[in-house]
Amino acid sequence: xxxxxxxxxxxxxxxxxxxxxxxxxxxxxxxxxxxxxxxxxxxxxxxxxxxxxxxxxxxxxxxxxxxxxxxxxxxxxxxxxxxxxxxxxxxxxxxxxxxxxxxxxxxxxxxxxxxxxxxxxxxxxxxxxxxxxxxxxxxxxxxxxxxxxxxxxxxxxxxxxxxxxxxxxxxxxxxxxxxxxxxxxxxxxxxxxxxxxxxxxxxxxxxxxxxxxxxxxxxxxxxxxxxxxxxxxxxxxxxxxxxxxxxxxxxxxxxxxxxxxxxxxxxxxxxxxxxxxxxxxxxxxxxxxxxxxxxxxxxxxxxxxxxxxxxxxxxxxxxxxxxxxxxxxxxxxxxxxxxxxxxxxxxxxxxxxxxxxxxxxxxxxxxxxxxxxxxxxxxxxxxxxxxxxxxxxxxxxxxxxxxxxxxxxxxxxxxxxxxxxxxxxxxxxxxxxxxxxxxxxxxxxxxxxxxxxxxxxxxxxxxxxxxxxxxxxxxxxxxxxxxxxxxxxxxxxxxxxxxxxxxxxxxxxxxxxxxxxxxxxxxxxxxxxxxxxxxxxxxxxxxxxxxxxxxxxxxxxxxxxxxxxxxxxxxxxxxxxxxxxxxxxxxxxxxxxxxxxxxxxxxxxxxxxxxxxxxxxxxxxxxxxxxxxxxxxxxxxxxxxxxxxxxxxxxxxxxxxxxxxxxxxxxxxxxxxxxxxxxxxxxxxxxxxxxxxxxxxxxxxxxxxxxxxxxxxxxxxxxxxxxxxxxxxxxxxxxxxxxxxxxxxxxxxxxxxxxxxxxxxxxxxxxxxxxxxxxxxxxxxxxxxxxxxxxxxxxxxxxxxxxxxxxxxxxxxxxxxxxxxxxxxxxxxxxxxxxxxxxxxxxxxxxxxxxxxxxxxxxxxxxxxxxxxxxxxxxxxxxxxxxxxxxxxxxxxxxxxxxxxxxxxxxxxxxxxxxxxxxxxxxxxxxxxxxxxxxxxxxxxxxxxxxxxxxxxxxxxxxxxxxxxxxxxxxxxxxxxxxxxxxxxxxxxxxxxxxxxxxxxxxxxxxxxxxxxxxxxxxxxxxxxxxxxxxxxxxxxxxxxxxxxxxxxxxxxxxxxxxxxxxxxxxxxxxxxxxxxxxxxxxxxxxxxxxxxxxxxxxxxxxxxxxxxxxxxxxxxxxxxxxxxxxxxxxxxxxxxxxxxxxxxxxxxxxxxxxxxxxxxxxxxxxxxxxxxxxxxxxxxxxxxxxxxxxxxxxxxxxxxxxxxxxxxxxxxxxxxxxxxxxxxxxxxxxxxxxxxxxxxxxxxxxxxxxxxxxxxxxxxxxxxxxxxxxxxxxxxxxxxxxxxxxxxxxxxxxxxxxxxxxxxxxxxxxxxxxxxxxxxxxxxxxxxxxxxxxxxxxxxxxxxxxxxxxxxxxxxxxxxxxxxxxxxxxxxxxxxxxxxxxxxxxxxxxxxxxxxxxxxxxxxxxxxxxxxxxxxxxxxxxxxxxxxxxxxxxxxxxxxxxxxxxxxxxxxxxxxxxxxxxxxxxxxxxxxxxxxxxxxxxxxxxxxxxxxxxxxxxxxxxxxxxxxxxxxxxxxxxxxxxxxxxxxxxxxxxxxxxxxxxxxxxxxxxxxxxxxxxxxxxxxxxxxxxxxxxxxxxxxxxxxxxxxxxxxxxxxxxxxxxxx
Length: 1605
Prior knowledge:
Layout: E1 7-11, E2 14-20, H1 24-34, E3 39-45, H2 46-67, E4 72-78, H3 87-99, E5 107-112, H4 114-126, E6 132-137, H5 140-146, E7 151-156, E8 159-166, E9 171-175, H6 184-201, H7 203-211, H8 213-221, H9 237-259, H10 275-285, H11 291-308, H12 314-326, H13 336-339, H14 349-356, E10 368-369, E11 372-374, E12 377-378, E13 384-385, H15 388-395, E14 398-401, E15 411-413, H16 419-431, E16 435-439, H17 445-456, E17 460-465, E18 470-475, E19 489-490, H18 495-504, E20 519-522, H19 533-541, E21 546-548, E22 557-559, E23 567-572, H20 577-586, E24 594-599, H21 606-618, E25 624-627, E26 634-640, E27 650-652, H22 657-670, E28 673-677, H23 690-695, E29 701-704, E30 708-712, E31 723-726, H24 734-742, E32 762-766, H25 778-786, E33 797-800, E34 803-807, E35 819-820, H26 826-836, E36 843-844, H27 857-865, E37 869-872, E38 891-894, H28 901-912, E39 915-918, H29 919-926, H30 931-938, H31 940-957, E40 962-965, H32 974-984, E41 989-993, H33 996-1005, H34 1016-1030, E42 1033-1036, H35 1059-1077, H36 1085-1089, E43 1094-1098, H37 1110-1113, ...
Parallel strand pairs: 2-9, 3-4, 3-5, 5-6, 6-9, 15-28, 16-27, 19-20, 23-24, 31-32, 35-36, 38-40, 38-41, 39-40, 41-42, 43-44, 43-50, 44-45, 45-46, 46-47, 47-48, 48-49, 52-54, 55-56, 55-58, 56-57, 58-61, 59-60, 61-62
Antiparallel strand pairs: 1-2, 7-8, 10-13, 11-12, 14-36, 14-37, 16-18, 17-18, 20-22, 21-22, 24-26, 25-26, 28-30, 29-30, 32-34, 33-34, 51-53, 53-54
Domain 3-dehydroquinate synthase N-terminal: 77-188
Subcellular location: Cytoplasm
Domain Enolpyruvate transferase: 414-861
């Protein structure tokens, strides 16, 4: 036998587990030599067969023939996947064995993953009453889990593994070389089980796993050659490490199985750690999430159960979390891989607990969970009984603090390590020299992010000691390496890490090979909003090259490796002290000593800067703060020498002072006592002053020593207001102070009174402006959650420039049962849990956000403080039935005077048969005088007070069946705003909006009302946000009239509009008010009646050009779909980045449709991942659009069920009489209509939607039959909600006939389905069909060039690209960049330009086809410029490009190839232009903010290229929404101007050049059609390989072009 080195593991007394690498030959010979048989049958699946079957077949047949044995070798392949693990799958294998006359001495070999092992093992257990079998697992999961232990089983419709047997294999061969072909996700899948066994059994193995993930993963990423690794002599260190990990994991399970094979003692339960909860999660998420991924989440949740019960410390939970994350495994149900799945909405606490009831470990109804005591040890040598309430608390997304007196008082505790000190210590130790042991390090999300980032930069090595209590850091002396290209450093929402690492990344030097790959740091959506501009500016000014990859001033950043230069650095430090600390920490490693000068006024949070300096001193670097030599005044200037930090052997991290404020505040608010150890008067942290400077003035007794702080609260209800307090030294603690101030109902201590007429119980907190740019805008968050005007606590507040005021009130007056939204901010959650200790039924919605700084806060609150915490599952989606006030509640109208409230209100009253009341007329009846006279007589304050009384009276006297129109100024009164906001929560308040210019014109003629005394526009700007705040609906009055129903003329003196327009107005008023009141909803009757229904999708960027044809377009349809994601303003067409239409523009579009049609609108914001254009990550922006739809009374709102559940629930709770279309689109072609996953998707959609929409893609005609059966099955199961079920793609057309609900249709007026024919997609005017079809005809080629118009790169484009007769395509704006994601390969030019205008199908050598993208735009531009440039222009010193889209990129590339020295770029949206500055390597691009080129230094441009639509430009000054082209453009004596637009032939730019006298300047002009021809010639050659007949083609194109003008 060839030499093979293996490890053997004993199980059940036999060394039957053999582990090694490249074992195929070893396996064959071992089986043949030790397991004689008449037949050897290898069973595998088709996937594994392609990879490994030939090797086994060759070796078996070769060795059998050479041994002269009479044995047979048979193979049987089955389909891959869990569906084969069934009764039918088992019978199929048994039939194969019987057919081939296999007998009882047969040996069966199971080659594959867990499915093959379980299934084949069960066959072996029962065939001929049991035959021998061998496990040859090919996945890591099967190697370490399912193949070991003898469990075999199949699935049934009732559950997994419910029918099976214990049947031990003769051998288990573990060949780690198989893992080299394993996908990375499958490797991570198996690592979950490896981590599991180490966590329950061996801390040393776990330590190796958590410290060496990169090495372990690397072992499978480099395929071995020539059987390297088969022997120890040829085995690499990575291979040996991988084998040791696998052997160690298997050894644990083998030992457990040996001692409890049949699960009689409970020991074997231990290998089910994470499985009780994990299996329940898997039951919901399969097949979208893998077994190991679900078990990974289950392990964390079960570890949290152990922590909750007091068995496991946070150190253990933190280590387990970090370890699993390092293998790319999910650790929470909020992981994006889970939340993006529709079925994740079904992961409710009740559902998971119900699934757990049938777990095989259970004893009757009692659930059992393996509880960790520490890493490597369990509480019991078996699973432990755990009550449902404990499990439910771990699973719940929210928490409720049961108010009461802390039962553990007097409390003595320590808080987790300081986040601020932990992060600084990590950076210092990583940059330092030597080994440092960090004690009391905070185990949280933030510190984990910092550690992983420093490890990713190869800046240090980290290991754990003392069961994870000590982190050992081996410093890298400041030597850092950029991550591989394409790998980003992801920081989540860790602001401290983001600021510190920005400067740390500047220390990266280019590699010895000259590699200058930049380091990219990024974060989540909130992190991308938090400012970092001041720090980047300072570093950039110091010579570092840092680029913003998205928004200016925020992450993500690209940081070039160049080192920190040093010298004098100026930094604006008025926003965040973390900027200062970031530079301080890295300054010793600069090339020169650093002098750091802080500018911009008062420095924020000086104590944190002092903390940094003190810690640097501990690590061996002395920072000197300079003083003015003449006055001795301390300056904000720091000197930092060049040095290398010297790591102390041990560094103990203080407890977190910010976190300490919460238990201390609980003592204060409940009148109890609390002592916090490890924080005292000598603390480095500013927040340590909280007890003395906040709690003591509020009436607490505070005792503080150097090392601890004790607070004894006053009797409950006796907290004092603080008056004025400057919390600048302890800004993070202001949230805690705010909730205490809310119940501070006693006057401030003497000397703290405000004395400015403010209320007695006022607490005015200042110095905290920086808290607006933390995890959220914390000042706003506290105001909103304490708010007296919403369903919150009822505490009045006022926002200040640098803080807020809170007006305290007795705690029994605060509202109970409040749900607190935490904005994913840990400090918001913990602050309001303090208030929850005295205000009953307070629910903290996002309980897990505390993991940022105090992951075990909720457990400590119960176990150490003594306040019970209950898990809360936030309610399911709100009831879909109409709002509870029914159709009778009176409607309130608000809006500017002159907006048409009276006109609209009278029409609405007539429509509904209700009574109209004008509050101003009611006022004049009550006070028999005109409004103007009342104001002149009594003054505005008296009028506002009387107006408020009138409002209250109207709401009491006329609660139903009335339309009440209020005066425009009602919102000026805060009390009135509060009343209106409260009314709008469940009854209609309509803001009647009208164009402000029309209002101004009307008010100029109106004389009955009081004069404003200030410009109308100023009044409008002040009131507009109040109108929005106080209303839940908005009616757009585009009528341009304010005529009462019975009047002949409008108050402005204008004549009434035409009868048709008046009827349209009446129709829209009737539709809108009938719908929002529920009196007559405008929903499609076809849906409720079960009849067929159809809708027309409007994918215009602007619907207004279609309005004249709207009636014809919509003939026969039941609704129109407005694709909001595709709407674009004119100014957005010259930008390259994704655009979101402004809310005001969306309002205009809806109003435009309403002017011509009362058809129901289906309002759709389709995301990119589901086939649309809206960015998937912009959740808040999407729901702003959805809420706008409800305000506008839109009938149907299409909401993708992949959006976050909380947002969907909130939207549904406000939907009124509108219907939600709960939709899901799967473009992959993997959606199976007969699968459990689509049934789960239906369940989720039914939960949210009044209408369900599921869209898949057909791979065959059979998929349409399956779709129809799915719909019938859903209806027969009692689903009464309308279902839209459609297959996309060419083969899915049949599904549109089968579908009965809102089937999408087209119309002859639309060139193709749902595509605009005229504006502004330029393909409608394209000469390309003429060009190419002429060439095809002249050369006798059997091709045709056709137009495919679409609003986005959608399924139709996908289908076209994959057609067998697809021969190529042109791509026009705005899709030249979007199409790239759908191509296989790009030309170097297209790659450089970043835009594709030509697609060419190409064949590979193996016959497969790829889609190749090229760009010929640049060739057309280059050739026309070169051909038309006047002879006097020998060199292009400067040139100008107008626009910043894909064509502008091509222009830059073309001009660069022509040797242009300076390329000026102008675009109305500067942000879009900035993306092009460095887009083309080597091109010198400069942004200009004006087209007046005379202001630019140096030669004037001799080449000008416009890439914007001609309609967007003008040569007349003052034209709105148009770009003015000045004649100074042509300042150069000679040149060429190219206008890429070719409609009209004479564009404003080309007309402008004609005005330049040729005697003065010699400019040549080029029409866009000439560029089109040049680039089209090249396209033709790329598609056909033939030269284009240029002259004949050009002649035909010019003739056609001129005849169309």
